[in-house]
Amino acid sequence: MSFLKCFRWRILAKLCLVVIGTAAAVLLSDNGAQIGAEAIQDIEHGKKILVLNYHKVDNSFNSLAIPPEDFRAQMQFLNEQGYHTISPDELYAGLTGKGELPQNPVLITFDDGYRDNYTNAYPILKELHMKATIFVVPGFTNVNKNYLTWDQMLEMEQNGITIESHTLNHKALEGLTDEQIRTELRDSKQRLEERLGHSVEFLAYPTGTYNLHIAGLAQEAGYIAAFTVKYGNVDLGSNIYALERVPVFRTEHTMRDFYERLQYRPILEQFGWKKN
Predict the structure, then answer these.
(1) What is the pTM of this model?
(2) DSSP string, 116-185
């Protein structure tokens, strides 16, 4: 949605409140359901859920690679600031009214399932008793030595780490046929479930790209929610199949940038409640 369109929605909401009255004002949600003014205010002023997005945790000179000492400092900062780590199941329960979220909830996610998630990130998370989620590519598992093995995944799942799907082979879904997309989504889910012994219901889109049609195919494949790399915090106005995340990169001032990202609120969230 463009900035101008978001701004117009905001103005429309205010006009509705003035002309019709707060109790009667309604807008339409993404699925066409009527949303009352009170619900809109609940979304705007309700709990914001921070979802952090990492990839690698090592000392390589790569913007996606966070040095282990910086990762430790970031996790310690979250602990000291009163953040509580949650699982995807807890996030979903909170968004659907089936459970209560803790104060200052944060979902820590990793994409791709690199081996360093086990060797470098996992010991820090375990030491600090923090939960995290890794979206893995099962087509790479036990094939490419740079990625997690099944045994490593099973061990981590015994200690607060959730393993979920990043598709079978990490192909950009928008360039595939429907049948190819179905294979990437379905086979990844099935292979993970067979090897890990539990349901796999959450997806992170490869490269973060998606559209409403792909989201529909993800739902058809049995996923109940999906994550993008769209910048922002999750709240009750989020599309459950296009959940926002805050990416964490290696920069010249990695820790300073990390602090700033935790405080930043995308301007589009300030000019309209509706999220695509």
Answers:
(1) 0.81
(2) HIIIIIHHHHHHTT--EEEEE-GGGTTTSTTB--HHHHHHHHTTTEEEEE--SS---GGGS-HHHHHHHH
